[in-house]
Amino acid sequence: MLLDTDIGGDVDDVGALVILNNYVNQGAAELLAVGVSAYNPYSAGVIDAVCRYYGNTDIRIGQCDFTDRQIDYTDEQLEIYSKPLYYGYDNRFANEDKQPEQVIDMYREILEDADDRSVVFVSIGFLNNLCNLLQSKPDHISPLSGRELVQRKVSRLVCMGGCFLPMNEEQKGIVNDMGLDVIEYCEFNVSKWPQASKTVAEAWPTEKVFVGFEAGLVKCGSGLKQCSDGNPAKTAYARYTIGGSLQRHSWDPIAVLYACMGGENHDLFELSAAGSVSFDENGRTFFKESDSGDSKYLIWKESGENIARKLDEILSVDGKPPL
Ligand SMILES: [Ca+2]
């Protein structure tokens, strides 16, 4: 699995990374690398801190190019959990002054070496990296273009992005409480880079499963209460959530959970009919059902409460497994 994340803003990326590490530790998933789509100098260190705490010490980490003037998060946002995890927990970037890899080269190398249709790509952030990968040209790493590499080596994209209607009654209630106009709603990941998002939705040449805004509208994190106070994810959730409740919406954790559990016969989720997804210049989502479409979106098969229970059960597993 390849995970692409904007970790450093919302804390749900941290929860997603914990869930993925726990699947890796059970031998139920293999994490090939993590790429960062956000402009944040601390993201790579945060990822390494979490993975190392869970015993996965040599995960490859890539970062998109940016300059100091382009940082996506304010100083105040960086103080919430990015800097505290970067400086407070063991990681190769703060400790050894290591630099993350260039993310597109890293993805191209991994895909070039991978077996055909063996890689699941999971995106829980902005879509700039996936777009840049698709548009990458043949080079010293591979004679294939990025699009050809993806077509040959990737089996499926699971993408947290967009907003899909209709919602179920539980989701509608939450959205009404938030005061959102769901028809006009431009989901955060997609609206950051709308053109890149549109390119990925329309040109990514594999099966795609979208986890929409509505599918993440249940809170998880309380499972971390059972973890040690030295757990970096617990620290991140405690610092991010109001009053240290550890409760945050589950957009990214659900995308990773679905990707790790895989398959169509799922206890918690089902998929929509096939169709095509597109995004407009602001990031509004359009879904058109069609038999030839390669995209589906995730639908809850269970109540939000039951989905959150499953997420918290996984989040409560602390650190590396016993030898
Ligand atoms: Ca995210």
Write up what this structure looks like:
The chain is an alpha/beta fold and 323 residues long. The chain has one domain (2-315): Inosine-uridine Nucleoside N-ribohydrolase, Chain A (Alpha-Beta Complex), CATH 3.90.245. Helices cover 39% and strands 17% of the residues. The chain contains 13 helices and 13 strands. A nine-stranded mixed beta sheet has the order 4-3-2-1-5-6-7-13-10, with helices on both faces. A two-stranded antiparallel ribbon has the order 8-9. The longest helix has 14 residues, at 12-25. Bound molecules: calcium ion (CA). The site of calcium ion has 7 residues, from loops.
**Can you tell me the overall shape?**
globular
CATH homologous superfamily?
A: Ribonucleoside hydrolase-like
What small molecules does the structure contain? calcium ion
CATH architecture label name: Alpha-Beta Complex
Number of strands: 13
Strand content: 15-25%
What level of helicity do the residues show?
25-40%
Using the coordinates above, name the CATH class.
Alpha Beta
Regions with little confidence, pLDDT below 50 for 5+ residues: none
- Order of H and E elements: EHEHEHHEHEHHEHHHEEHEHEEEEH
Mean pLDDT across residues = 96
- Oligomeric nature of the chains: single chain
Strand order of the largest sheet: 4-3-2-1-5-6-7-13-10
CATH topology: Inosine-uridine Nucleoside N-ribohydrolase, Chain A
Count of folded domains = 1
Secondary structure tally, helices: 13
Span from first to last CA?
24 Å
**What is the radius of gyration?**
18 Å
Main beta sheet: 9 strands, mixed
